[in-house]
Design goal:
The complex is a heterodimer.
Chain A lengths: L4 H11 L6 H15 L24 E2 L9 H6 L4 E2 L2 E4 L20
Antiparallel strand pairs in A: 2-3
Chain B lengths: L4 E11 L36 E2 H13 L3 E2 L2 E2 L2 E4 L9 E4 L6 E12 L2 E19 L3 E5 L4 E5 L6 E11 L2 H18 L11 E10 L9 E6 L2 H20 L8 E5 L4 E4 L12 E2 L6 E2 L18 H6 L5 H12 L3 H9 L3 H11 L4 H18 L11 H12 L5 H11 L7 H7 L8 H14 L1 H9 L1
Parallel strand pairs in B: 13-14
Antiparallel strand pairs in B: 1-11, 1-12, 3-7, 4-17, 5-6, 5-16, 7-8, 8-11, 9-10, 12-13, 14-15
Classes of the chains: A alpha+beta, B alpha+beta.
Chain lengths: ~110, ~475
């Protein structure tokens, strides 16, 4: 079952990835097929598990003390652009160009 | 024309009052140099992990209990993904699947026809309360076409309180939010000052005809005060009704309230519905809470949160405080509302009552009419009052002992507002406002008046 162009475009938009070429898309399709095998197991009435820790307590609770911060200089070291100790970003999200305007592989699909 | 039924629901974000952030040890403070209250985790540097702040959990449990919620003994954390410059991780840690508290209720009161003497109690259901991270702040610099990002707020703990669409207009929403604000402030779980962004409210509004399914709803954001909340909602209800009556349709969109124009305007690009790709937060195990029954035997106290322990220590909520004021002092219910609505006013009232022989039912008039109106006129808080409870009690005692008249008392009060440090008695003496009690003296004065106005007396005697 092929993944539709709309879904591929949606994924590229959501995760800011680029499937590049036919091989990339095929790899994705194979990955989905592989994961789909999970559906072969009947999980009716079974609670989903997202942690092997289950109900065992082990979420550590920290005391409400101030122990970090005050490292503006270090943090800004990584910034490509800064203005008076603020990080600089483009004005709002730059919308991705529509499919027709992109020069992606998906256009040809 | 068939009647329209407006439906209003609210999503409220309350900043948790804590020293440090939800998942890191950086400080929570309103005004500070940009990016000075930011840890490596808050800046989303690789290799950092979230560590849950105990105080934030307690705040959420307190709030859940105060709102009659069921506290989930096991709740989970999730990631909500979207891209924005003030969200460095590209996702927000929240509780989407199983929040910490669910199925509560909030009772609030409304005046019918603006008459405080006719109050009606309404209830709104609380769908859930969840713990989540706040984002940083974006400052838009349109001239240079850039956004400046300050992450001081990024990671501060929030309680999102979701209210079911049980409200029907701006007034109800405003009253519900006001009551929630008072509750949060009483609990201390949030200072809930809207002006400082500690309480943010988004409204979901739709209209439909009775008996028909609910209409398409819009989300209204950017509301900065309770007053604007009512305005924004009422405007949006009207806008939707007009649109539909003109044959138009309502788009499921997000709109911003423009306080200057008093209207709502479309806010976001129509990118289609947001897909947040929720997934469990892999770095946080489930949050387990206990009660007296389930308390584990051998566990470090510091690591255990006991819901019952917190329940026992909840302070009196506003509704209980009001009831007690009415019962203890014999004042009217609407009086108790006004007392609690002003920070420190109830305490001031009780303090005056303790220090005077005047009955509380009479004292309340002086508090609500004279004191409060003066404070409002001069935009002062109760704390800033130039007249202390001691001084006011002193004045009321003079009145009660009939040493001055009620009119004279108001005159003295007007003088006391100047805050020159004079005692009420000093002012009474200065302005010669003492009531004369001596019968003989009074007779003498009357006689003197009669003697001094012989003509008028003759006119009166003749009729």
């Amino acid at each position: 079952q092929k993944v539709s162009v709309e879904v591929l475009q949606h994924l590229e938009h959501l995760a800011l990835v680029d499937f590049r070429d036919a091989e990339g898309v095929q790899r994705l399709q194979k990955a989905i097929q592989f994961a789909d095998q999970l559906h072969e197991v009947n999980t009716d009435g079974v609670e989903p598990m997202d942690s092997v820790l289950e109900d065992r307590w082990c979420l550590y609770l920290r005391e409400d003390d101030v122990t970090e911060g005050n490292c503006t200089k270090e943090l800004l070291e990584n910034a490509r652009e800064k203005v008076e100790e603020y990080f600089v970003a483009p004005p709002g999200n730059i919308p991705l160009p529509k499919l027709e305007e992109q020069e992606t592989f998906l256009q040809g699909s | 024309l068939a009647p329209w039924v407006p439906v209003v629901g609210l999503e409220i974000h309350a900043q948790i009052s804590s020293n440090s952030k939800l998942f890191s040890g950086s400080q929570v403070q309103f005004a500070a140099p940009p990016n000075s209250l930011v840890s490596f985790f808050d800046a989303s540097l690789p290799g950092t992990l979230p560590v849950l702040n105990r105080r934030c959990v307690e705040a959420a449990v307190m709030t859940g209990l105060a709102l009659n919620c069921s506290i989930n003994k096991k709740s989970l954390f999730d990631r909500k993904h979207y891209f924005y410059a003030d969200l460095p991780a590209g996702y927000q840690i929240t509780q989407q699947r199983v929040p910490i508290a669910v199925n509560g209720s909030l009772s609030y009161s409304l005046c019918i026809d603006n008459k405080m003497s006719q109050m009606v109690t309404k209830t709104v259901r609380i769908k859930q309360i969840q713990l989540e991270q706040d984002s940083g702040k974006s400052l838009h610099d349109d001239t240079r076409s850039q956004t400046l990002v300050d992450l001081n707020r990024a990671g501060v703990g929030l309680m999102e309180v979701v209210m079911e669409p049980d409200m029907c207009c701006g007034e109800e929403a405003a009253a519900a939010v006001r009551e929630l604000q008072l509750i949060l402030q009483t609990l201390g779980s949030s200072q809930a000052v809207m002006a400082e962004g500690q309480l943010r409210v988004d409204a979901n509004v739709s209209v439909h005809h009775p008996g028909e399914p609910y209409g398409v709803r819009t989300e209204v954001k950017n509301i900065n005060s309770i007053r604007f909340l009512a305005k924004a909602i009422d405007y949006e209800i009207q806008r939707q009704i007009e649109e539909l009556e003109n044959g138009g349709t309502i788009l499921n969109e997000t709109r911003a309230f423009d306080s200057k124009l008093g209207c709502t305007v479309p806010m976001r690009d129509k990118e289609g519905k947001q897909d947040y790709r929720f997934m469990p937060e892999p770095n946080l195990p489930p949050l387990i809470l206990y009660d007296a029954k389930s308390l584990p035997a051998n566990m470090n106290h510091q690591q255990v949160i006991n819901i019952d322990w917190i329940h026992e220590r909840l302070p009196d909520l506003p509704s209980v405080k009001r009831k007690k004021l009415v019962e203890q002092y014999g004042i009217l219910p609407e009086h108790s509302f006004t007392l609690l609505n002003e920070e420190g006013l109830a305490e001031f009232f009780e303090s005056v009552v303790k220090q005077t022989q005047m009955k509380p039912k009479k004292v309340i008039g002086w508090i609500l009419k004279d004191l409060l109106s003066y404070l409002k006129q001069h935009s002062l808080t109760v704390k800033e009052s130039p007249v202390s409870s001691f001084v006011l009690a002193d004045l009321l005692n003079l009145l009660e002992k009939k040493e001055i008249s009620s009119t004279a008392a108001k005159q003295v009060l007007a003088e006391l507002w100047k805050g020159e440090g004079k005692t009420p008695l000093e002012i009474v003496k200065e302005q010669k406002l003492e009531l004369l009690q001596d019968q003989k003296e009074l007779e003498q004065i009357c006689q003197a008046v009669i003697d001094g106005h012989k003509n008028e007396v003759i006119m009166m005697v003749l009729g």
